Every structure is written in structure tokens, then in C-alpha cells.
Amino acid sequence: MDIKQYVIEHGRQVNLAAGQHLFRQGEMEDALYFVKQGLFKAYYLCQDGKELVKSFIAEGDVITNLSAVFEREPCTFSLLALEPAALVKVDFDSLYQHTLDDLELSRFMLASLIKLAQKKERREYEFLCLDATTRYQQLMQHQPDLLHRITQNDIARYLGITPVALSRIKHGRKA
Amino acid sequence: MDIKQYVIEHGRQVNLAAGQHLFRQGEMEDALYFVKQGLFKAYYLCQDGKELVKSFIAEGDVITNLSAVFEREPCTFSLLALEPAALVKVDFDSLYQHTLDDLELSRFMLASLIKLAQKKERREYEFLCLDATTRYQQLMQHQPDLLHRITQNDIARYLGITPVALSRIKHGRKA
DNA sequence: CGAGGTAATTAACCTAGGTTAAAACGCTGA
DNA sequence: TCAGCGTTTTAACCTAGGTTAATTACCTCG
């Protein structure tokens, strides 16, 4: 079955206002979402209360909390709508079961997972090998569009630095 | 077809001595490897000549350079045998084509990719939210076995710090 | 056994980025 | 218009980790 067909048959529309959570760290979650409209930030809340941004998710992206739905554990991060959003919600287990029996669905999942793995590998590379200034430049190059929809605070926490440090970097004040 | 069967039919044995490379950053590569024996480090060589360790790969693991084989680009990292190693080499394109037409192979690929994605997400979390000391403790907890097979230099470069810093952390000398 | 090589430790000093707090700069809404 | 609130900037100071280099601890090989 085509993934679009599957989503039409099994999906449920979900709408969120900006500022609302799709799910929260610690909660149980069993769904996978297709983003039709809007912008999300996925973020971790650390023990010391700090918030770090795992990723931004926009139209066309698929989002789920892998370890949560797959291992049936509490969500490892929260997902917050930064803009009014429209999504389609699909039960993960059910989709996964169908995937195991349907070559066309399976191809879709494979492609999505490879894309995800590549994205995470690039991020791993950036944290491992680049300093904050270079990471910021890369972000500007590769996602210039994103920067206009996101607050500088969130960009900083995505880069793994503080808003203060990002402001310094932007204004070339390092000494 | 069962993945084991596929490997038996299409795989080619490869043996490496400790210190030999399976492939090098910048080279072209089109294979996927199943590690039967041995230990590898995957590492990046940065522009400034520094070496950072992406991951360690041991018996039972599957290793490939995703972006290289999938996007037909030069390898993004090098793979070096730290111990004498035995692997089975499989052509990626061919396996991928079979995967697209065979549910059983497809299930294997899905499972591998999900495992990979989870591993990379955990690493992303660690870089984003934890300091070097905590990352080291986590590593000791989750892979105590690895530590005995790997040099402290490599552990440091895997944690994203210098060997000097790791030595300081181990001996509680922070001031 | 001793020479040479790598890995680990230590010390002194340096820098990127964190912390805190205070201003400046928008907004939006009454 | 202006009050109120979040975002960004700036400044002063602090700390984790980097850098360099010297010292020590292991190995392996002749």
C-alpha cells in the first residue's frame, strides 16, 4: 500500500496553536506524525533545568519519539509548536506492523530512516569536529530559511551554546 | 530471503590486521560490512589535522559509510582496525535492491536502521546536554567492556575532548 | 638487559564559552 | 500612547577544557 493511502485510511487530523505541546518529555506516546503545516522544536529538559534543542521540524517532515514508541518508554524529549500547526497522527505500532508485511510501506520507512540516520550523523560530526562559530555558519548556509522563523534563543540552544554566546559570535566579539 | 542466507550467497570474506584501514576518508566505497571478529574505530580527520572518533565497531555490528554508499560521495570518515579483524563484505547497492523486493531482508534493514538511529540520538543527547565528565561516566556504565580494548587517547577523542582532559577527569583534578 | 616508541600523567598557561545582571530593543495589547 | 514582557545585547567575571611541553610509565624488539 502507498504511504499516502495508508495515512488517508488510518490517520487522524491534529491541529495545534503556537505554544502548545504535541507531547512532553516523560509522558507515554505511541504515535508518529506527518507535519502538514507549522514549525516545531524538539527539546530536552536537563536535570539542571536547562533546555536544549534537539531539532526543528517543519512541513513535510515526519516526527516521532523513536525510543518512546519503539521501546514503550516515556518520551525522551518534548515537542512544542512554534507556529500554528496541522498534522496527521498515525499509530506507530499499527504502521510498523503493516510495514513488516507490505513492501511499499517498507520502502517508505527505509527511505525515512536512512534520511534520519544521515541527518543525525551530520549533527554528530558537527558537535564532534566543529566549534560553535563554525556550527552557526553551517546552519546559516544550509538552513537560511529556518533562521527567520526561529528566535535567536532557540538557535543558540540548538547549537549547544547560550544565547549570550550566540550574540557574541554574531557580533564578532570574542576577546 | 533470510539475511544470513543472503550474506552466505553474496558476501566475500575480508581479513585485516590491526592497524590496517578498511576504507579511508575521501575514498569511494560501495560496500557494507558485517563484523565477525575484531574491533574498529571510525574517525574523522578534521581540516586542522585533528582526529575525532565517531564510533567504535565490534563483533556483531554492521558497518558502512551511509552517505558514501547511498549518495555515491567520497567517504566522510575512515575505518581502522584496532585488532585483527574478520568481516564479510557485501555490495550495498545490490543488497539495497534486494531489500526493496524482499520483505524479510527489508525487516532486517528496518531493524538495523532503527537501532542506528537510536544510537545516534543518544549520542546527540550526550553532546547536547552532558559535560565531558558525565559523558565519560555514562560510557563506563554502558560499555565497560569497550574501555579495556581501547586506548585512553581514543576514548578521549570519542568523548570530544583531548587525552589531557580525560586524564584530568579520571584523577579528579579540575582546579 | 637496554633502546626506542607510544600512552598516560602532570603542570603552567590560555581561550571559548558559561553565568549573572543590567541595559536596550522590540513587540503587543489596553 | 504607554505599560509590560520577551528577546537581544553588553559587560564583568568565572570555569571547563585546550595547548604545549616535560616527565613518567609501559611495551616490544634487538
From TrEMBL, chains A, B:
Domain Cyclic nucleotide-binding: 1-116
Alphabetized SMART domains for the sequence: cNMP
Cross-referenced InterPro entries: cNMP-bd_dom, cNMP-bd_dom_sf, RmlC-like_jellyroll
Top-level division of the source organism's lineage: Bacteria
Protein name: Crp/Fnr family transcriptional regulator
SUPFAM superfamilies, per the entry: cAMP-binding domain-like
Source organism: Motilimonas cestriensis
